[in-house]
Amino acid sequence: MLLTYKIEIKPTEKQAWQIDSHISGSRWAYNLFLDINRQRYECGYHYMGAYEFSKWFNYEYLEANPDDTWIKDLYAKSVKQAFIDADTAMKRFFKKLGGFPHWRSFKRGQGSYYFVKNSKAQIIPCQRHRIKLPKLGWVRLKEFGYIPTDAEHFVIKQGRIKFKAGRYYLTCLVEQAELPKSELTGEPVGIDLGLKEFAILNDGTLYHNQNKSSRVRSIRKRLRRLQRKMSRQYQALKARRQKEGKSATDLNLAKTQRKVQRLYQQLTNIQSDYQNKIIATVVRTKPQWVALEDLNVKGMMKNRYLAKAISHQGFYNFRNKLATKCQQFDIPVHLTGRFEPTSKLCHQCGHKKVDLKLKDRVYECSNCNYTKDRDINAALNIRDTENFELAY
Ligand SMILES: [Zn+2]
Predict the structure, then answer these.
(1) Centroid of ligand 1 to alpha carbon of 366 (angstroms)
(2) Ligand 1 centroid distance, CA of 371 (Å)
(3) Does residue 120 lie within any of the structural domains?
(4) Is residue 369 part of a domain?
(5) 133-184, pLDDT tens digit by residue?
(6) Ligand 1 centroid vs 343 CA: distance in angstroms?
(7) Dist. CA 390 → ligand 1 center (Å)
(8) Average pLDDT for 17-34
(9) Could you point out which of 27, 119, 309, 319 has its C-alpha 20 to 30 Å from the C-alpha of 335?
(10) Same domain, yes or no, for 123 and 7?
(11) Considering the chain, what is the average pLDDT of its residues?
């Protein structure tokens, strides 16, 4: 079984510099691949795949362009991977699975340092607090003991380092033995996702909406202010560019951009941490299945009054994460049909209450006098419905 681990690292100044040059080098290589192949196409030459390109690059291109030999100082596998990535993107384009690949840009935080386990015998040494990578040497990890260090049962196959909002993150792919299949003995779980509260389980467990917490609200407030500032600075820069020409720069604008990036990152981290915790709690009970609504997020986003609130909830992410985690433990995930009237049905007798209003917080059945909290009733229906698809 292959699992991905993601962790922040703490490179030294020298390592950070090395990582930066690998990242920009991989961007350069990626763009070169696209550029050359486009030129070749225009001149009627055949398309060069990654393998052929890499050979041509090393023997012919670098001979002819001695200015670019700095790329030789970088870890060769990392450069080659950039060609492979570009090749994959082009092949997707040929198969009409995607558009013509974009150029990799610094602005979009693209490019990565790539490492790989070369041979069967080689191992990528990792200790609880550090990992040894080609060209960089031992790199300190920010979280101790997260990446498995038992090299016999956990094999680090490959990985990447990326730079995002002022921090360096390492992701690595680890081959490990299947987890022993434990019996699913827990009660099935139904989850009702919403805007008022983030999630309500059928047993009444309530997960509040993080977006209403003072922490998130204050970050959003700071973010709004900074974005206004950023747009003012941007306008000013534009005006200066017209007067002074293209060389005008604004370091203060760059600083504000960095701050904005960091706040966005902070929001993402808060959300994914919260969601991970919910998922971990649910999975720990070993439920026989987990059910949630297959929300029509795209359709809901069309309602412009709710679009922002919905996008802030991150339902789509939650669903994907939950499905991935459950798959590891072989827990089936039921996705309830989009048009299933889960909140209108009585969980006890199946009567459909057509006139249920949004403000009715308690479900009262006119048929069998069953009363239940509205959301718990919905969660129970989600759990027990037979109109579902499996998430994986
Ligand atoms: Zn009823």
Answers:
(1) 7
(2) 8
(3) yes
(4) no
(5) 999 999 999 999 899 888 888 999 999 999 998 899 999 999 988 777 778 8
(6) 12
(7) 28
(8) 96
(9) 309
(10) yes
(11) 91
Same structural domain, 69 and 119? yes
Residue 167, number of CB atoms within 10 A of its CB: 13
**pLDDT tens digits along 90-127:** 999 999 888 889 999 988 889 999 999 988 888 999 99
Joined tokens for residue 265? 């990152």
Structural domain harbouring 22: 1-178
8 A C-beta contact, residue 283 and residue 329: yes
Residue 253 in contact with residue 237, Cβ under 8 Å?
yes
- Let me know whether 159 and 219 are in one domain: no
Sign of the four-CA dihedral 43, 44, 47, 53: negative
Are 172 and 242 contained in the same domain?
no
Same domain, 1 and 71: yes
Would residue 320 count as lying in a domain? no
CA of 208 relative to ligand 1 center, distance in Å: 28
Do 202 and 42 contact (CB within 8 A), yes or no?
A: no
Tell how far the Cα of 278 is from the centroid of ligand 1, in angstroms. 30
Q: Based on the structure, what is the number of domains in the chain?
A: 2
Task: Tell me what the mean pLDDT of segment 267-279 comes to.
Answer: 95
- Answer yes or no: do 1 and 141 share one domain: yes
Say how many Å lie between the CA of residue 204 and the centre of ligand 1: 19
Q: Which residues of 321-344 are buried (b: 16+ CB within 10 A; e: fewer)?
A: bbbebbeeeebbbbbbeeebebbb
Query: Same domain for 265 and 132?
Result: no
Select from 127, 161, 178 the last residue of a domain: 178
31 and 172 in one domain?
yes
Residue 299 in any domain: the answer is no
Among 128, 158, 178, which residue terminates a domain?
178
